[in-house]
């Protein structure tokens, strides 16, 4: 355990890099699974539409009874309704996931209790730029006064 702690202390930036890469890989896998779920859901919705259309034609031709038509279409419509809601939720999840920084800089929070730091919040690029601009403004004000 001490060897691991010493490694992280000495090579903290490398450790954070590897952690970010691992999180990025997991993030990419999650995005892929969401895309596949959306594709399969949309494909099934199209299949249900086609099946309902065929049932309607079979009902008109007299191949199936009205009761059977109603029972089957009700089942298909319920499945389609649930599937449509699921696909919409998956699309929202995908959109939110894609908006996150993929490089892991603002997604990685590391507990470093062994260095007595506590939880380290890694700033985003915009937070770093804002801090740099603030420092530069304060330096310019100090020089002019």
From TrEMBL:
What is the protein named? DUF4368 domain-containing protein
> What top-level branch of life does the organism fall under?
Bacteria
Coiled coil (residue ranges): 24-107
UniProt entry keywords in alphabetical sequence: Coiled coil
């Amino acid at each position: 355990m001490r060897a691991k702690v010493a490694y992280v202390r000495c090579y903290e930036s490398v450790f954070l890099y590897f952690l970010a890469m691992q999180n990025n890989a997991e993030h990419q896998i999650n995005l892929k699974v969401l895309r596949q779920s959306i594709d399969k859901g949309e494909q099934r919705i199209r299949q249900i539409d086609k099946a309902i259309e065929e049932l309607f034609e079979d009902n008109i031709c007299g191949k199936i009874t009205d009761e059977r038509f109603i029972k089957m279409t009700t089942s298909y419509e319920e499945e389609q309704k649930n599937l449509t809601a699921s696909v919409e939720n998956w699309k929202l999840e995908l959109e939110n996931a894609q908006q996150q920084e993929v490089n892991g800089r603002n997604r990685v929070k590391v507990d470093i209790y062994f260095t007595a730091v506590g939880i380290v919040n890694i700033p985003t690029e915009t937070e770093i730029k804002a801090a740099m601009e603030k420092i530069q403004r304060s330096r310019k004000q100090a020089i002019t006064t």
